[in-house]
Amino acid sequence: MSHPRVLIADELSPRAAEIFAERGVEPVTRVGMKPDELLACIGEFDGLAIRSATKVTAQVLAAAPRLKVVGRAGIGVDNVDIPAATAAGVIVMNTPFGNSVTTAEHAIAMMFALARELPAADRSTRAGKWEKSRFMGVEVTSKVLGLIGCGNIGAIVASRALGLKMRVIAYDPFLSPERAEDMGVEKVDFDQLLARADFITIHTPLTDSTRNLLDAKALAQAKPGVRIINCARGGIVDEAALYDALKGGHVAGAALDVFAKEPARESPLFELDEVVVTPHLGASTAEAQENVALQVAEQMADYLTTGAIVNALNMASVTAEEAPRLKPYMKLCAQLGSFAGQLTETGLTSAHLTFTGHAAELNTRPLVASVLEGLLRPLTDSVNMVNAPVVARERGIDVQVTTREKVDGYTTLVTLSVGTERGERSVSGTLVHGEEPRVVEIRGIRMDAELGPQMLYIRNKDLPGFIGKLGSILGDAGINIATFFLGREATGGEAIALLEVDQAVTPEVVRQIEAVPMVVQVKPLHF
After folding, report:
1. Do 503 and 449 touch, CB atoms closer than 8 A?
2. Same domain membership, residue 268 and residue 293
3. Does one domain contain both 471 and 501?
């Protein structure tokens, strides 16, 4: 079996290639490729490791039928078309923690540089001046630091600021009051932060809701003399409005590591001594670059070799510890989804998943994705675990998930109920010995069936003579029965036969079985 191949398209630590090789992945390093060169070779690879230089566009993804994962050594993924990757079934990973300390430290350094006017003082002194009275800075002790975003990096900044004896307030809709209390920060709304903060530092991604968050209106609401630090993403601060607020004196200073357009070769802000600027250095330390390179290599290698999914932006995470435990459940869920999908002959309207017992204790998001992949594959060949939830949403399929602690007779049970234009039906499965999938109920009828590569599903009336007629038809066609599972709702009622067969069931054989008077439905299935 050939090893997965990963293309390293941007500069990474040499240790990253070593980690790939140690974990059974073949690394190929081709740094500095032009877009047409990337398009020409990307089809050969299962993974693509990048930093910020390589652009992963829809065109690149379309040229990469083997591609399973894109790994970004760093946090920002502005250079990756995530919707296109999701549609193509490609996982996009980043490394949100490898450079967190470095970025947080840069924000603190920028705050000090701003508070004590260090860059301007440095330039003045180098020019032979001795303008001691000109550079009258401010202390940070006892000042209020306002955090916009209090995730991983924001929390590190808060901890450093508290060590400097600052008072820290935070605006973050996702920050719980309990977490804020544990960190020693005060959670506030946006208007409160603007009114109270002496320094504002930004630690949030650039999204539709954060774009130009600090615009002219917000800056006018800010406390007079506020100083603003942005080491997160350009575009969160309206640079033109910031320039006006600085020139008008309402904002005392700004320290910017990021800009709306990068590289930032020119800007009116560069003319102002009150502004400290750096060329997107937030993650630029030797330690951070090493950390993110090693982290992305480990994450990508683990996914390609074990199925573990960590720090994915378009897929539920599956840790290396979870992956072995989830594997048999994912197989079961894929089989249940495929079973229902292959029997669907009209439009799907809903999919309701119920996880009971041990299954309810697991990370169910990848299990749901497995079910949806199996359910939708008969409708489209381009579906996989990554894009299945998106495809379901696009098709208007209402997906619901329920968890229950226990059910009589089973330690673990997964039930899929699908709604179609003709009504609802369900299929349930469990694991035998903790790893062997079994179908235990179809349309409310109990059975105990193991699914093989080629199956034959038959709904029929429970009347004498059916099994004999079925055996004769299959025997005459030279089709051997490997296993035979039966279930019925009641004597003389509806019954289900599920057979594993060694040879393919042809359309002609299906027609012969359908002609048997007690037969309601016949469907060859493949797993």
Report:
1. no
2. no
3. yes
Domain of residue 340 covers 322-526
**Domains in the chain: how many in total?**
3
Distance CA 286, CA 101 (A): 12
* CATH number of the domain within which 135 lies: 3.40.50.720
First to last CA, the chain: 22
Q: What is the pLDDT along the chain (527 residues), one digit of tens a residue?
A: 589 999 999 999 899 999 999 999 999 999 999 999 999 999 999 999 999 899 999 999 999 999 999 999 987 788 999 889 988 889 999 887 777 889 999 999 999 999 999 999 999 999 999 998 899 899 999 999 999 999 889 999 999 999 999 999 999 887 888 889 989 999 999 999 999 999 999 998 887 889 999 999 999 999 999 999 999 999 999 999 999 999 999 999 999 999 999 999 999 999 999 999 999 998 788 887 888 899 999 999 999 998 888 888 887 777 767 778 888 998 999 999 999 999 987 778 899 999 999 999 998 988 998 999 899 887 766 677 777 887 888 778 899 999 998 877 889 999 999 998 778 899 999 999 878 999 999 999 999 999 999 999 999 999 999 999 999 999 999 999 999 999 998 888 999 999 999 999 999 999 999 999 999 999 999 99
User: Which amino acid, 76?
Assistant: G
CATH number at residue 430: 3.30.1330.90
Known catalytic residue: 233?
A: yes
Whether 415 is in a domain gets the answer yes
List the alpha helices (DSSP H) in 344-395. Answer: 364-376, 388-394
Q: Which of 453, 466, 460 is nearest to 524 (CA)?
A: 453
Selecting among 51, 203, 280, 459, the annotated active-site residue is 280
Tokens for 138, please give them.
């401010």
User: Does 332 reside within a domain?
Assistant: yes
Please tell me which residue in 37, 139, 262, 421 is annotated as part of the active site.
262
- Among 233, 298, 373, 500, the active-site one is 233
Residues 116 and 196 in one domain: yes
Whether 312 maps to a domain, the answer reads no
Q: Are 91 and 127 found together in one domain?
A: no
Sign of the four-CA dihedral 163, 164, 165, 170: negative
